[in-house]
Amino acid sequence: MGRNTRKRRTPLAAKAIAASAALALGGGGLIWANFYASAHESNNQTWGGNQTKAATAQVATISCPDVQQKLTNVPWRARQGVATELANLDKQITEAYTRLASTRDAQSKDPSFVQNSIVGPLKDKRAATIDRIRIDIQRVGGSFNNALSQLAACTTQNADQTTAGGNSGGQQQNNGGQQQNNGGQQQGGQQQGGQQQGNNGGQAGDGPSAADFVDITKVAPNVQSKPNKTPNASSGTFTTRCGVNANQNHNSDNVIVAPGVTNGAHHVHDYVGNQKVNAFSSNQTFLQGGTSCQNRNDLSAYYWPVIREQDGTQEKDANADGGGKDLNVGKILVAQQAQIKYVGSPASKVVAMPQFLRIITGDAKAFVNGPANANAHWSCTGFENRVQLTDKYPICPAGSKVVRSFAFQSCWDGQNIDSANHRTHVAFADPGSGVCPNGFKAIPQLTMRLVYNVPQPVIQSDGTVKNAYAVDGFPEELHKPITDHDDFISVTTGGLANRIANCINNGQNCA
After folding, report:
1. Structure confidence by residue, pLDDT tens digits, 320-349
2. DSSP element (H, E) containing 5
3. Please, what is the angle between helix 79-102 and helix 120-139, to 10°?
4. Per-residue DSSP letters for 27-90?
5. What is the rounded CA–CA span in Å between residue 407 and residue 374?
6. For a surface tag, which of 102, 317, 452, 504 has the fewest beta carbons within 10 Å of its beta carbon?
7. Cα separation of 322 and 308, whole Å?
8. What's the whole-model pTM score?
9. Environment class of residue 104 by beta-carbon count within 10 Å: exposed (0-12), middle (13-18) or buried (19+)?
10. The dihedral of CA 482, 435, 450, 24: what is its sign?
């Protein structure tokens, strides 16, 4: 389904690779199909290598509502069945995309073809799957919001109609309570919708595009001050050293979002900390998993999508799920530094994290869903105290390195280690005061800082980007920087969770 070769293609070959697959976890997303007009098929086009070429293709899309985010009340006994059905929604989108991409001639001859042969049948399949979700929930005594049945219908959009959930990136507000961003000061914040520049195997629409990169030296300072500390603040820190995944512990599962579903993430993760994390892991597995952390009592799972250099390298997963099959191609870069630190609250003491607490920060589908749950931070060494980018990849000056940073939710509802949509059991503190929402307790805030040595991207006069790099993601997300995210499962032994909280509450800096 995906293409992973990087060699120069003839126009016929370019025409043959009409599509890039779209798999939106949770049954929502945009299906993108790339159609090359014959007027643009020229031997003068260069596909692949380490350059991004301006797209000349029209991009047709199908937009499907995100079912998972609306499922906020799923009983525990129904969650595995629901996760399986959400994966079925993903499969249905993929099948519809494949048909969309392979029926160009039929669509050009019959204006109703897409509706009658693709969107209509897709709605019927989605409706049946959503009904199975209803049955799974009601079978164990749960309640189902019948309004969710309205999410079966998908819509079609042309490239020039699509703004990917209205996401301009510049409106991102979610800052983790520790890293505030004024995305409106970023240059060229508007996402480019269908007018993408192809980089993955030369397929227009795969991304990233020239508009996704910005020279960080030309971005106005936008880092705002942190909340003032109160007398009751917890001002300590606790650092855990877990390595950079030099042993290449990778997979494309996501045990939080898609337990029991192989390739549930559709992109590749780096794992540090717990070494036995996959779709089929359980809490008991985590306790037996071993750890890459120096502190052997830290069995927590820390994982994030890999970054790839778009250089044409045939990576080991070039023909595998999560890699080339999901249009994540190029050389996987290993972080030079992976700093993991727990920090306190400026407004109160913290309570220890509960065992097996799950937290996702950021949104892997933020380009499609919009920025409500986005929490991406990109910068360069030497600029982190001045500039944080939310929807751009930084072009760092000579001697400076790319930095990804994450500040997780620091407030917990005091009861649940997870929630049906993996969001509502935790929350961000108020960015101005650092106070948690009513009913939530402050917990040690997990922060992460990943540093990479990447070749400096160069935006050339002809619209190409030399030395492009990008984060792995769902194909329909076009490898946008706003989709960066991080995942965490708290697993500790020997009283470590209490020691972390006590260290932070006492104002100490521990490791």
Report:
1. 999 988 888 999 999 999 999 999 999 999
2. none
3. 180
4. T-EEEEEEE--GGG--TT---STTEEEEP-SEEEEEEE--SGGG-----GGGHHHHHHHHHHHH
5. 11
6. 102
7. 13
8. 0.79
9. middle
10. negative
